[in-house]
Design goal:
It is built from 38 helices and 23 strands. The protein is an alpha/beta fold and 851 residues long. It has a six-stranded parallel beta sheet with strand order 1-10-5-2-4-3. Strands 11-16-15-12-14-13 form a six-stranded parallel beta sheet, sandwiched between helices. Strands 17-18-19-20-22 form a five-stranded mixed beta sheet, with helices on both faces.
Length: 851
């Protein structure tokens, strides 16, 4: 056989280490030409300025070739002798896309079906695999000191990877699981002390009912938890198929257990009606030596994403976050016409948009809706839209890519990792505000709704969703935002500051378009016609619209300094690391400094006081309880302390009409007021999760000038909601928003909750009187149930009537000068819209009847 190497004379075979030079040597497909200018620019910058850094964040607009850049960086490191090299994707779909690019560009690669390929281990090929393949307790890469040596690693879409890595450490048990029932029973008394009514809902299986296990109870009983989970893992390990000795599908805990079995004590547990979650306060990433000890790590991130989450999520330092690898000529990318129909005209509400765009009909482009839950997709399904799940989403996207656009596609609770380019999706409907699915994050959102962390996390999810349909510099899409809570989130200037400058500019353009549409709407022009006319401006490639968009986007400066969220995450990480290293006093010092320098909101300060109390529990229980008591005084949604808590009576501190005027004049415009009112009323509907419904009822009380609270959440006992109507008369409300609308009767548990709420009131409000309401779709009381006090029932019609009256009351202020409003005017409007204290005592609700 001819050996060409011998014909090279004195020259030796050498491998280029410059990624641009490597590209020139690749056996590329015939349609793959030169590198794009932005790719060449970024690769040159990496080679000269970032190559020797251990960690690099690569930020580049979607569609500008990050995947190829990542592959070339890995190949450059392999040629340098720093291997093996692995390219991690957040899902299997992106693995296929990355492998396709590697083939097209002639980059040697391999995949891991079972064991790790020898070509990868020998540094002969780049391994392209999922983040789950590396980050699991039975990882083929090995754990701790047995980890496979990796020289260079690329994490594609690293924010999506964070969620997958977090799941690798999270034990999630379904309520049907025996281990769930055992853990629930273990902490039954402690959970009930943190909310008797919520615990009753939880025990009844209501999914939205959740209670965290107090840290002091968890630390005291973590050995019992370990025994319960160890037994479950042992059962899982015995799942052997009868033929061939192959293991059948096991629960995720079998893969998770090796990672957390030794750190159970440092975990947080939240229990809900449909399951529980156990997760470490800080993911022990050091167990994955292949990641933790890699010589060079590249994290690919979208330009619109705040990378502060990488501080804790991937354990990166702040210098890496603040000095990403970007194109110096970075500009905005893609065209997004954001439309908010409800701001154009109130008739263009969510229901109308779902009906209009959810109907099956002939189309020349794809329509895709993003909803926060499968339940939210049911509205779409009844008109003919298809709801995709994890098993069908790939096929449904291929359907759209194949040009079959008749049926709209609904994607539930998934805002990243999906590409919908070009005609696949020209109309993207972002339906309703996304909410955290993780129980730990849900608890956090309840306790700290106004925190920078919560706002940044929400902005990240919304931006991920907005980016699904515009996948290249020349791609374009109409994005329609619906749902009162989502509209309020993007309309608020406070919320908008957490978006990237590019997204913020696009949203503000959408608000401006809504203003222009209202101003230009003709007398004979329907709101629906105006909306479709705007859509056609984008999809019909109207020259004036394109010029308007370019002018607006060219006026922004995309560089954005890191906010204080970065400093908050740094402090949280430092405090947790010190605690796990056995130095709780240092943890407390770091938290106190954070409170003193960066936290202004009192409820947010309370969150960190609770963290300090957790750090001190083992070393000083009295000091820990003191801090927990102080935290609860500032934020009553946090854990109630073991001792010392006293219920403070809800009393009227300000004349009601004065309070209403203060609430109204806190808004800069009627439009802002109306958005919040619409949001509140939208959450006061049957089918809304209990947490959101009860919070909306509290906010309604505030808006109507009553003193309002949620005793079961704040004092861990009592009714769901309590309003002070008059000096010695209160409104007690029990809410059952999640029950089946076709429910035939009120059961014994529910009447018992109402009775307990009334008893709590009598105990804490001696000498006071109350009006007692239960919000539930039926007024029939089951034979086994019964009320001990006079109770009226708010059914669907009565609830809707209250909503109509509230909206009409505040609509009366549309043309008013907020500064000149008189108390007499407000009082007259309260009377005419049946919103006086007397109305709430006498006019709302129907009498129950016993079966």
């Amino acid at each position: 056989m001819v050996d060409f190497a011998k014909r090279l004379g004195k020259r030796e075979l050498s491998k280029p280490v410059d990624p641009i030079a490597i590209y020139d040597t690749l056996d590329r497909a015939s349609d793959k030409g030169e590198l794009r200018p932005v790719q060449a620019e970024v690769l040159q910058a990496w080679n000269t300025d970032y190559r020797k850094r251990r960690d690099v964040i690569l930020k580049l607009h979607t569609g500008q070739g990050k995947t190829l850049i990542g592959l070339l960086v890995l190949q450059a490191k392999l040629n340098e002798g720093i291997g093996p090299a692995v390219y991690l994707c957040p899902n299997n779909y992106l693995i296929e896309q990355t492998c396709l690019q590697a083939r097209q560009f002639g980059i040697r690669h391999c995949v891991a079906v079972g064991d790790l390929p020898s070509d990868f281990l020998d540094s002969k090929a780049i391994l392209i695999t999922s983040v789950q393949k590396l980050f699991n307790g039975r990882s083929k890469f090995g754990l701790r000191n047995q980890s496979t040596k990796v020289g260079c690693i690329v994490l594609d879409d690293c924010h999506a990877c964070i969620d997958s890595i977090r799941d690798a450490f999270s034990v999630k048990l379904d309520a049907k699981d025996t281990a769930y029932r055992q853990i629930l029973d273990l902490f039954r008394n402690a959970l009930e002390e943190q909310g008797a009514g919520t615990f009753s809902d939880l025990s009844s299986g209501e999914p939205s009912a959740l209670i965290p296990v107090p840290y002091w109870e968890w630390r005291a009983k973590c050995s019992e938890v370990t025994n319960i989970l160890q037994k479950k893992v042992a059962e899982e390990s015995q799942k052997i198929a009868p033929e061939g000795g192959k293991r059948v599908q096991r629960d995720d805990i079998w893969f998770i257990w090796p990672l957390i079995k030794d750190v159970i004590k440092e975990c947080f547990c939240v229990i809900a009606g449909d399951g529980l979650e156990i997760i470490p306060y800080l993911s022990p990433l050091d167990q994955f030596g292949s990641y933790y000890k890699a010589d060079h790590r590249v994290f690919m991130s979208a330009t619109v994403t705040d990378d502060s989450f990488l501080i804790k999520g991937l354990r990166l330092d702040s210098e890496t976050i603040t000095n990403p690898l970007v194109s110096k000529n970075e500009r905005w990318s893609g065209e997004k016409m954001i439309l908010i129909p409800s701001l154009i005209h109130q008739s263009l509400d969510r229901g109308l948009i779902v009906k209009e765009f959810g109907t099956t009909r002939a189309r020349n482009c794809g329509v895709v809706a993003l909803t926060p839950s499968f339940a939210g997709g049911k509205d779409w399904e009844k008109y003919g839209a298809i709801i995709a799940d994890t098993t069908t989403i790939g096929a449904q996207i291929e359907r759209l890519k194949g040009g079959r656009f008749e049926q709209p596609l609904v994607i539930a609770n998934r805002y990243d990792g999906i590409d919908l380019p070009d005609d696949t999706c020209r109309i993207l409907i972002f339906d309703s505000r996304p909410y955290a699915e993780s129980l730990a994050h849900r608890y956090e959102e309840q306790c700290r709704p106004n925190s920078e962390i919560t706002a940044t996390r929400l902005a990240r999810i919304i931006e991920q969703g907005l980016g699904r349909s515009v996948r290249g510099q020349k791609d374009y899409c109409v994005i329609i935002l619906i749902g009162a809570e989502l509209v309020r989130a993007v309309h608020s200037q406070t919320s908008r500051k957490y978006f990237s400058l590019q997204t913020r500019a696009q949203i503000e353009m959408g608000l401006e378009i809504a203003d222009m549409a209202r101003e230009d709407m003709g007398q004979n022009e329907t709101p629906s016609a105006v909306l479709h006319g705007l859509i056609n401006k984008c999809l019909g490639r109207d020259d004036a619209w394109k010029a308007f968009y370019i002018e607006k986007m060219d006026s922004i400066h995309l560089q954005r300094p890191a906010g204080k969220v970065l400093d908050i995450f740094k402090a949280e990480l430092a405090a947790e690391l010190a605690f796990q290293a056995g130095d709780p006093s240092e943890s407390v010092r770091v938290m106190q400094k954070l409170i003193d320098t960066d936290i202004r909101d009192e409820e947010e300060k309370a969150w960190y006081l609770q963290e300090m109390a957790r750090y001190l529990w083992d070393s000083s229980k009295s000091e820990s309880n003191r801090l927990q008591l102080e935290a609860h005084k500032k934020n009553r949604y946090l854990l109630s302390p073991r001792s010392g808590m006293q219920v403070a009576r809800l009393v009227i501190s300000q004349k009601r009409v004065e309070k209403i005027l203060k609430w109204i004049t806190s808004f800069a415009s009627y439009e802002q007021l109306d958005l919040l009112v619409q949001d509140i009323i939208a959450r006061l509907e049957f089918g809304v999760k209990a947490e959101r419904f009860e919070q909306a009822f509290k906010e309604l009380g505030d808006a109507l000038g009553f003193e309002s609270e949620r005793p079961d959440k704040e004092w861990k006992a009592g009714p769901d909601n309590l309003w002070a109507l008059e000096d010695s008369h209160h409104l007690i409300v029990e809410c059952k928003s999640e029950v089946d609308l076709n429910r035939s009767e009120i059961n014994k548990t529910e009447t018992g909750q109402m009775n307990n709420a009334c008893a709590w009131f009598k105990n804490n409000y001696a000498g006071g009187s109350s009006t007692n309401l239960m919000i539930i779709p039926t007024s029939k009381v089951g034979k086994a149930g019964g009320f001990s006090e006079s109770v009226k029932i708010i059914k669907r019609h009565e609830l809707a009537k209250l909503g109509w009256n509230v909206k009409a009351f505040f609509a009366a202020f549309q043309q008013a000068d907020f500064k000149s409003l008189s108390e007499a005017t407000v009082q007259k409007l309260l009377e005419s819209h049946k919103l006086t204290a007397g109305n709430f005592k006498n006019d709302y609700g129907v009498q129950p009847h016993q079966l």
